[in-house]
Structure to design on (131 residues):
């Protein structure tokens, strides 16, 4: 029982990661054109507009991987107390969030950048509990 209580904070944060990234993945897949249109408007005065379709595709794939690995990581934590997959999920999540943060800074959307920081803190906290 004590072993499960020790991993509970990390499991809760992994559930947060899974929900966040899998729902974001589903939104991007079901409304690809809407997301691309929003991003083209958001970045209209920047140099990244030609890169948006590829970047959106890359982020969509990384979100799927991060969310799925978070779920698999939870299973591995309970089954064998092995945190490797959960740690990989956190690292991929941080890569996505840093891409978002860079994008918000390029677009000069400082409020958006601030909001992403909250997600970064949650994922770093999860990583801390896993290591």
């Amino acid at each position: 029982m004590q072993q499960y209580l020790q991993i509970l904070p990390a499991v809760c944060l992994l559930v947060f990661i899974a929900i966040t990234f899998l729902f974001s993945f589903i939104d991007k897949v079901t409304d690809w054109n809407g997301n691309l249109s929003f991003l083209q408007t958001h970045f209209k005065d920047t140099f990244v507009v030609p890169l948006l379709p590829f970047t959106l595709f890359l982020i969509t794939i990384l979100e799927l991987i991060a969310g799925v690995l978070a779920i698999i990581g939870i299973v591995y934590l309970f089954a064998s107390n092995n945190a490797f997959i959960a740690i990989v999920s956190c690292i991929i999540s941080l890569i996505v969030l840093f891409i978002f943060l860079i994008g918000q800074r390029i677009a000069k959307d400082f409020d958006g950048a601030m909001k992403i920081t909250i997600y970064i803190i949650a994922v770093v906290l999860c990583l801390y509990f896993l290591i």
In short: The chain has one domain: 2-130. The chain has a mean pLDDT of 96. The radius of gyration is 16 Å. The first helix runs from residue 2 to 30.
